[in-house]
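can u do me a favor
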């Protein structure tokens, strides 16, 4: 029953044992509260090592919290955030960014396979008003890595989009709820990525990739440190027992566990792709650059599928999404493939 849920989302997976053990260790003793604990202090050093410079950070409880807090630091209430038209911040967070920014607008930019099309971005930037007009001016570009379609931008693609935005005076945010999966797939380094793109602020995901419950906001613009600290507190994101979040991060980063876990999830997704490729009636919808597989089913087949039997998310007409986690068992992958093969055969007979 528990395993049956797994392919529906990496959010259904439990936490990695290394992370649970670190939380248990952090339970020993009495430590300073509100981030004054030794684990949080050491984490600052760890982040500095990863990013090649000191950064301000806020440990938060969810990806939505990370995005809304991060974007509120770099976007004024009268501004606009440009993002992919299907970006999670725009279609799946119930206006959290608008709420946290006090009213900023989310402007969707089209692009195939979940990635912003450079020409469409240029067009949007050229047609939106400048900051002195009465209408809203774009303030920030938000890129999602992995994208909502499970694809990854290359470093060059991200650099080009970010440079275009910067040329129009925008700041740059990355929604990295699944950045580990993108990096494990490409072999790139997070420090290099953030430096080369000149990211202002990053939502760094961990929960979907084996953490118990923590994501982080990483700030690269030192002039906004106070802004982040105040907004973190006022939005209820300062944890009194931050040591338990810091412990998760320590274990997550130690020995690159985060990249190892993401690599395992990506490998499971590739195994799915290989096996599903043998079913003629199915089409893989988008390139699989991480741990997410979208598939197009034969027309009408969805009505005969019970997603209690094959765990998936219905994503659109005849489209389903399967997501592998770091610990998806091979039997579950095989079960999904067998189930889909049988359904395809039945629907075509
Ligand atoms: C790309 C992306 N960003 C942010 C989030 C939000 O994360 P959470 O559900 O932890 O709020 C999700 C959740 O699925 C996501 O897919």
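np, heres the sequence
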């Amino acid at each position: 029953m528990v395993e049956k849920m797994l392919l529906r989302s990496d959010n259904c997976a439990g936490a990695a044992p290394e992370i649970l053990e670190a939380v248990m260790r952090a339970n020993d003793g009495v430590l300073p509260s509100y981030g004054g604990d030794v684990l949080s202090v050491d984490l600052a050093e760890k982040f500095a090592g990863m990013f090649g410079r000191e950064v301000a950070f806020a440990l938060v409880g969810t990806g939505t919290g990370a995005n809304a807090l991060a974007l509120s630091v770099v976007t004024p209430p009268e501004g606009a955030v440009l993002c992919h038209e299907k970006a999670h911040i725009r279609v799946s967070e119930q206006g959290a960014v608008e709420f946290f920014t006090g009213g900023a607008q989310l402007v969707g930019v089209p692009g195939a396979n979940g990635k912003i099309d450079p020409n469409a971005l240029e067009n949007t930037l050229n047609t939106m008003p400048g900051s002195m007009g009465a209408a809203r001016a774009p303030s920030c570009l938000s890129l999602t890595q992995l994208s909502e379609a499970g694809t990854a931008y290359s470093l060059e693609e991200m650099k080009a989009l970010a440079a275009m935005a910067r040329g129009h005076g925008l700041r740059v945010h990355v929604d990295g709820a699944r950045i580990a999966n993108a990096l494990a797939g490409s072999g790139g380094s997070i420090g290099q990525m953030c430096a080369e793109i000149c990211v202002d602020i990053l939502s760094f995901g961990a929960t979907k990739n084996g953490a118990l419950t923590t994501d982080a906001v990483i700030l690269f613009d030192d002039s906004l440190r106070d802004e982040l600290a105040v907004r973190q507190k006022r939005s209820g994101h300062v944890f009194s027992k931050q040591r338990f979040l810091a412990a998760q991060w320590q274990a997550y980063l130690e020995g690159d566990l985060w990249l190892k876990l993401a690599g395992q999830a990506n490998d499971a997704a590739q195994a799915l792709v290989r096996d599903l490729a043998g079913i003629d009636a199915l089409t893989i919808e988008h390139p699989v650059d991480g741990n997410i597989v979208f598939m197009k089913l034969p027309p009408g087949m969805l009505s005969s599928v019970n997603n209690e039997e094959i765990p998936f998310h219905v994503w659109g007409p005849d489209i389903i999404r399967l997501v592998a986690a770091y610990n998806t068992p091979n039997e579950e992958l095989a079960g999904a493939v067998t189930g889909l093969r049988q359904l395809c055969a039945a629907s075509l007979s």
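The chain has a mean pLDDT of 93. hope that helps!!
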